[in-house]
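Figure caption, in words: inputs first, then the predicted bound structure.
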Amino acid sequence: MVPNGGKYMINENLATTEHLNNGVEMPKLGLGVWKTSNANAKESVSAAIQQGYRLIDTAKQYGNETGVGEGIREGLEKTGLNRKDLFVTTKVFNGDQGYQSTLDSIDGILERLQLTYIDLLLVHWPVDGKYIDTWKAMEKLYHAGKVRAIGISNFDVERMQDLLDHADVTPVINQMEFNPLQQQKDVLAFCQHAGIQLEAWSPLGGGDALNNPTIQEIADAHGKSTAQVIIRWDLQRGIITIPKSAHIERIEQNADVFDFELTDAEVEAINNLDEAKPSLWYEDFAWHNEDGHGFKDNVDTWDDSPVNFDK
Ligand SMILES: NC(=O)C1=CN([C@@H]2O[C@H](COP(=O)(O)OP(=O)(O)OC[C@H]3O[C@@H](n4cnc5c(N)ncnc54)[C@H](OP(=O)(O)O)[C@@H]3O)[C@@H](O)[C@H]2O)C=CC1
Ligand SMILES: O=C(O)C(=O)[C@@H](O)[C@H](O)C(=O)CO
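Bound structure (LYEC3VGP present):
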């Protein structure tokens, strides 16, 4: 940790990266912002960058790309970092999928984020009948330099194989629900075989994995929180991870995971917690295939705890 001249210490370990299959380096640990309101996104993203975070994960669906963009600008200003030091992920949501509409969606993304390129663009959910066309458009955006890397999210093995059968560019990432209770063994094995990096969404199980007694015991042994143990477990498993918090002290805590190591037995104990238990709504996969229907446009009502700046 080094001082940054402001109120935060910079955690330089947050700059460590995984090497993606197209040669791009992606930070191993970043900040997720689903359910962070547009207003709070600015503050949390700016604070995260000031703490050393390089990777920010947003999506059109989250309704906060504008706030994320403002947070990025403020974070860069306050740290003196350059745009190229950051890694920004966003996603093409269901209603924008298809060839032309995916191509058209990039202008809105860049405008909302106020960026000239995206580091990683993901197919947010595989809309059956459209995801190949969506991918073809994303390949075009990649070759045009609008995005540095393209990937997928929520693709099971069957859909990944189908995509690979039609793709010219192999996805760099599959971003999946992955946490101690949901370890996606078949997806992970396929990704490892195909050279696709797995990235964990809801790494803390949306909070549900934080009260697990096995993880608590391991946390106590290391003097760490259960969130830190889970994030450390992701890193030791080679999984890129993007825990979300709207609390500054938790954003900082979640990154303070580079000064301890889980033993092989502890990693194994967490591996053994797998219940292959997806979030309830994940089981309702068809919901996500309704071409954007069900898109929650009432993001202002999302439960979003206030950002705490009283450090
Ligand atoms: N591709 C996809 O389809 C999806 C992608 N995602 C991405 O993954 C990110 C992370 O997943 P998400 O579902 O948000 O859930 P997480 O698993 O990251 O858990 C977030 C919850 O845990 C709480 N929390 C975070 N840190 C701590 C801590 N140190 N101690 C106690 N509680 C803590 C947060 O509360 P609080 O904010 O109040 O601190 C929040 O309630 C998303 O933000 C999004 O970027 C998520 C879902 C689907
Ligand atoms: O957070 C995401 O990236 C999601 O895909 C979720 O928001 C999901 O689509 C949802 O809205 C579940 O209710």
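The chain has eleven helices and twelve strands.
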